[in-house]
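Session log. Operator J.P. requested a structure for one protein chain; no other inputs attached. Running the standard single-chain path with token output.
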Amino acid sequence: MVKITSLEVLIVTKHRSPRDQDHEDLYDIAQTKFSEIDCLLLQSLTKSDHEFQVIKTTMNQYYKM
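Structure written below.
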């Protein structure tokens, strides 16, 4: 496996995408990498606090499923 971007960049990019597959990928990321997500980095990559809160809530929900 070749790492080409940070986990947090991947999460933000996939969250902004309208494709169903990207949201399925977010579920998979939450299930396998949740503890590795750097919330401070994630927040710094979002456009607003609202976007950060939506992503954070979504990832928490996917993780708990």
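Operator note: The mean pLDDT is 95.
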